[in-house]
Design brief:
It is rod-shaped, with a radius of gyration of 45 Å. Helix 2 runs parallel beside helix 6, helix 4 runs antiparallel to helix 5 and helix 5 packs antiparallel against helix 6. Strand 2 and strand 3 form a beta hairpin. It is built from six helices and four strands; from the N terminus they run ααβααββααβ. The protein is 65% helix and 16% strand. The relative contact order is 0.16. By secondary structure, it is α+β, with helices and mostly antiparallel strands. A two-stranded antiparallel sheet has the order 1-4. The chain has a domain of 174 residues.
């Protein structure tokens, strides 16, 4: 609204001054007024479009796409899918070794002093007791095997079931990675597009700035009127504001790509 009022006032100004010729001093003061108004508009545009991008955003270089695609594997969602695969793989290994539980091995060992008490007698001798003592080692070792027929018959099916689970989880992981890579690719293309756009708009703004200096000098010298100068300044202001808006759009695209990959997107040449 403020910009429209300024433009309207600038359009009425030639009519107010048509009765008399503007002096050089009046032209200089008017030019300073116009510059002040343009500064206000550009300041508002900078505040509205403030970002963490460097001022010369058109000179920034985007890193190769492969760096961002490789970073997808470090994403939490992909890591979760990979962790689930490893979990089932461990269960599969345990199931493959489960046949060892069919076998039992047992053993025992003892060492000590043993006392043996015995009774003895004969025809001419009454019963008497004798005791002998000795150190002895005793041990035994044994093995056994025991399994259910159901466990033996169903074992191949159980192992196959774990293989199917691992395959399904791998497909899920690949699907997650593919979706993530598509998002990264879209964000990367958006950044690439905005970099190309901002470079073009930066060149346009620089061209209008150069043209503006020439037009201001011509206005002071009286070679052009206020209407021509106003049109030139309007084009220049539009180019500057468009450049600032492009910087904001580029910043948003960069932020999204960094969030998807946790990679520093932009590096200066």
């Amino acid at each position: 609204m403020y910009k429209k009022l300024v433009c309207f006032a600038l359009l009425l100004l030639p009519l107010l001054l048509s009765a008399q010729e503007m002096s050089r001093e009046e032209r200089v003061r008017l030019l300073e007024l116009l510059k002040a108004e343009d500064t206000k508009l550009e300041t508002l545009a900078n505040i509205k479009g403030s970002s963490s991008l460097p001022v010369e955003a058109d000179k920034l270089t985007l890193q190769p796409l492969s760096i961002f695609l490789d970073a997808v594997t470090e994403n939490a969602t992909v890591k979760l899918a990979q962790s689930q695969i490893e979990q089932v793989r461990n269960k599969y290994r345990l199931e493959k070794r489960d046949w060892l539980n069919w076998f039992r091995v047992n053993g025992a060992y003892a060492f000590g002093r043993f006392n043996i008490l015995s009774n003895s007698s004969d025809t001419y001798t009454p019963i008497y007791q004798t005791m002998t003592a000795s150190n002895q080692h005793t041990f035994n070792v044994g093995a056994s095997i025991s399994f259910g027929l159901g466990d033996l018959i169903n074992r191949p099916l159980k192992l196959k079931d774990y293989q199917y689970q691992i395959e399904q989880l791998q497909f899920t992981r690949d699907q997650v990675m593919e979706e993530r890579k598509l998002k990264v690719l879209e964000a990367y293309n958006a950044v690439t597009e905005q970099l190309a756009t901002i470079k073009a708009k930066a060149e346009s703004a620089a061209l209008y700035n150069a043209q503006m200096k020439i037009s201001e000098n011509d206005f002071i010298q009286g070679k052009i009127d206020i209407i021509t100068l106003s049109l030139e300044r309007s084009r220049r202001s539009g180019a500057v504001v468009s450049y600032e808006e492009a910087r904001v759009t580029l910043h948003n695209a960069i932020t999204l790509l960094e969030m998807l990959t946790d990679v520093k997107v932009i590096k200066e040449e």
